Amino acid sequence: MINIPKGTKDILPSQVYLWQHVEKTARETARRYGFREIRTPTFEHTELFLRGVGDTTDIVNKEMYTFLDKGGRSVTLRPEGTAGVARAFCENGLAGGAMPFKGYYLISAFRYERPQAGRLREFHQFGAELYGSAGAFADAEAISLADAFLKSLGLCEVSLQINSIGCKQCRAVYQQALRDYFRPHLAQMCEDCRARFEKNPLRMIDCKEEGCKRYTAAAPRMIDYLCEDCRSHFEQVKELLKESGIHFTVDSSIVRGLDYYSRTVFEFTSSAAGAQGTVLGGGRYDTLLEQMGEKAVPAVGFAAGLERLLMVMAAEGASIPEEPKADCYLLGMDELSRKKAFSLAETLRKSGISCEIDLMERSVKAQFKYADKLGARYVAVIGETECREGVAEVKEMATSSSERVKFEELAQYLLQRKK
Ligand code: HAM
User: Is residue 112 in some structural domain?
Assistant: First the structure.
């Protein structure tokens, strides 16, 4: 047998309703905040991610699914959603429309990572992006949407950490301070950190290697290097969050794994997501479009990993609506009744009732057993007499009580009881 590729997962019918619940909650929350769905391609020109995600990131350096198509062009399966939305925003001239632009997406994304619990090679994200506003209200709105989404899923033990990584100017001063601090320890640090030292020393701060953590704990903090504008922006974001009752802690080790961020960065974490504690991450990225060779437009956004969210929901015992069951099973006792059941089923389905009939030529007893397995609320029994009289014997499975209902009144009967 050919097996599923490593790091990917089948989502079976018994699990799909959980996904649909999360997706529905995402759509509904986005709607309340005025974010509209945007769909972009699953693959893009590789160049987009080199410029958009950044060539010092693990994603670009180690994790991209890149291949040459039959026309010899290098394309990449999207490792995240932001770069594609940024491209679509520019290419379709969305800046000329009503601003701010507020878009959300539900996508699968691909990263060639070492799979473990909560870390896959194909995973799913709910993301939101807001373009056109440089003000702190936009940061707070993005964080508020993220918070509302997680709360709507019933998650209580997810906590928010925020930080500011400043603008190009103040970050350059900070990066120099970091290099001065790390230089004497560099020989003892991991290969990745040594590579990051010149290009992006900020990423040395969130290194997970035990040997490096020894030095990162006492490293200078970006917060102490923020310029006046960045400091005031960060203060405003914090004030707005407090104002709307969103709890957070400031964590100076949050720098995020992608190159495009500036000023506010944030993560929602939960210990229930295993070693991969971050369920949702995002931040402001005012220079991304410029990095892609376009006119600069300020932006802020986030993405949540749906697999990790489902893990946390299960661990927290979050209440999830039950999967809807069949309203009715139409049980035909003989050949003629089975035909009648088939045509009745069509009528019921047209009225919006979910019903099932026998497709396996089962005995009456086996059909009852199957209807029970389906969780059907009613079983409408049709035999020779019922066909002659034009009625069905409708049994409510939970109470075992039954009533005789005319065929032409069956839809109405079931619809009334569905409410
Ligand atoms: P990210 O932190 O790379 O940010 O990913 C966001 C979320 O996707 C993570 O917090 C995690 O829950 C989930 N995730 C990432 N990689 C995996 C994986 N291999 N397996 C399972 N889940 C994963 C971004 O993607 C940015 N585009 C977010 C953003 C939008 N920033 C601004 N706008």
Answer: yes
